[in-house]
Amino acid sequence: MEICKVFFHLSVSVILSPLQNYPLYIRSVPSQSELKFHYTVHTSLDVVEEKISTAGKAMAEQRELYLGLLYPTEDYKVYGYVTNSKVKFVIVVDSSNTSLRDNEIRSMFRKLHNSFTDVMCNPFYNPGDPIQSRAMFTMVSGLKSDKCGWLV
Amino acid sequence: PSVFIADMADEALFQFLHNEVIQYVNSAESGETENGRCVSKLENMGFRVGQGLIERFTKDTARFKDELDIMKFICKDFWTCVFKKQIDNLRTNHQGIYVLQDNKFRLLTQLSTGKQYLEHAPKYLAFTCGLVRGGLSNLGVKSIVTAEVSVMPACKFQVMIQKM
């Protein structure tokens, strides 16, 4: 599966491969900060794995991976989402962006998931390759501009 | 699930298209007396389709508890979405081998109701084997899927889970 990292305006989205956990799509708006997000996201993977493995007991919802503050350093909030196909999505948001509510994050994940499903169904896409879909790019830009409104 | 059924092309359309694909792949391999390459091409096609399909089908479902849960999903929801019916019988030895029995496999019903054309059956099952393997693969389950027919249109798909 793919890891899609989309870095928004002060936030980062990442989609991670189910097996090897490598990123398939990375985009950062302030592109110079992309590198430091890699570290943040990879550390968050441990928490993601932990959550998945303990979810076996109750029929946990597939999107119940809102990790909230994974770790309070670097003033980022990291949210996670794992599909049934073991694709992991991670969104990193700047903590100063406190106006972002839980359901907004959920809807961002929903859009990411929908776009990802479309990419999967695209015959020109080979699973495991980096995502180069323009539709994905446009959707992600859309998410970013939604958030821009909140950053005022 | 009803949303997916509405989205799926008409059942007959899929069957006809499937048969044409088999004819096409078969004729592309003309000169080869064995079915081997034809079958593996079809299986690989099914694999890629299965990957995409399962991504769509599991978009809104709850997380699967375990391997058996996944197999049940394949037998019920997945089979229903693709073939408009469920698998009739699922057996397992609880050690990674599952046998899915379809007593009236949709892609075989037009061929015969007995032993006629039995030797051609593998070609007609290859795509579906790939479909299951692709679907399972994207759910994190590596497997080998084979199929056998003794009396049409009933057939059995055997899924062997591979430990990663």
UniProtKB/TrEMBL annotation, chain A:
Indicate where this protein resides in the cell.
Cytoplasm, Perinuclear region
Q: Which Gene3D superfamilies match?
A: 3.30.450.70
> Can you list the GO cellular component terms from the UniProt entry?
perinuclear region of cytoplasm
Keyword presence, Transport: yes
Where does this protein chiefly localize? cytoplasm
Q: Which residues form a coiled coil?
A: none
> What processes in GO biological process is this protein linked to?
endoplasmic reticulum to Golgi vesicle-mediated transport
UniProt keyword list: ER-Golgi transport, Transport
Q: Which InterPro entries does this UniProt record tie to the protein?
A: Longin-like_dom_sf (IPR011012), Sedlin (IPR006722), TRAPPC2L (IPR044760)
Top-level taxon of the source organism: Eukaryota
UniProt record similarity statement:
Belongs to the TRAPP small subunits family. Sedlin subfamily.
What's the protein name?
Answer: Trafficking protein particle complex subunit 2-like protein
- Origin species: Pygocentrus nattereri
- Gene name, please? TRAPPC2L
UniProtKB/TrEMBL annotation, chain B:
Q: What is its main location?
A: endoplasmic reticulum
User: Which cellular component, as a GO term, is one annotated location?
Assistant: trans-Golgi network
A single Gene Ontology biological process assigned to it is: nervous system development
Q: Does the keyword RNA-binding apply?
A: no
Q: Where in the cell is it found?
A: Endoplasmic reticulum; Golgi apparatus, cis-Golgi network
UniProt-listed InterPro entries? NO_sig/Golgi_transp_ligand-bd (IPR024096), TRAPP_component (IPR007194), TRAPPC6/Trs33 (IPR037992)
Name the job this protein performs.
Component of a transport protein particle (TRAPP) complex that may function in specific stages of inter-organelle traffic. Specifically involved in the early development of neural circuitry, likely by controlling the frequency and amplitude of intracellular calcium transients implicated in the regulation of neuron differentiation and survival.
* Family indicated by similarity: Belongs to the TRAPP small subunits family. BET3 subfamily.
PANTHER family given for it? TRAFFICKING PROTEIN PARTICLE COMPLEX SUBUNIT 6B
Protein name, per record: Trafficking protein particle complex subunit 6B
Q: Which organism is it from?
A: Pygocentrus nattereri (Red-bellied piranha)
Name the gene behind this protein. Answer: TRAPPC6B
